[in-house]
Here is the input.
Amino acid sequence: MSEGNEQRPLRKDAVINRERLLAAARELFAVRGLDVTLNDIAHHAGVGVGTAYRRFANKEEVIDALFEEALQDIAAVANEALTEPDAWAGLVMFLERSLHMQFGDRGLNQIMNNAALGRDRVSDARDHIAPLIHQLVERAQEQGVVRPDLDQSDLIFVQLGLSAIMESSRAIAPGLYTRYLTLFLDGIRTDRSDFLPLPVRALSAEETHRAMTRERDVS
Here is the structure.
């Protein structure tokens, strides 16, 4: 048997193990955020720690791989939104679906929005996603369904703010971010004769305090 033939099963095993590790990382990050180790990921995937370190040098490489997947998924949503003849419906669909992707996944939310995770990821997001968002906004302006001074950066910053609401209120009112998304949508549309119904109630003063202080040391 040739050396090339001997290596083929190993290459196939390497691909399978890499996918198992990424699947395990997705599951752990979704529930626990990024505060897991590569050892945790290996155990959850059912592979040896040594195997994990052969596929990924550290947890950062796992995060990089998942970030690239997330960019591709969000880009796919944006491209689908651009095929919607009604530019307003496409814009709303993009915001709702891209935010929903983060809503159920603490790890994705942190990967996409944690500034401490590196400028390269911000640059990748800018290069892949920003042009698509620009097209969504431009189409909506051409159809006259959003205010003419709306900028693609407005959508990016609104998503950033909504992700913070999502993270702080997840344990108390998981859908709270949709209330503020609706308020934003009412603020940019031009055909408003009335207001969109808010999908969830506002938090009480006590609930707001709990949401804002839940991770702080109150001792």
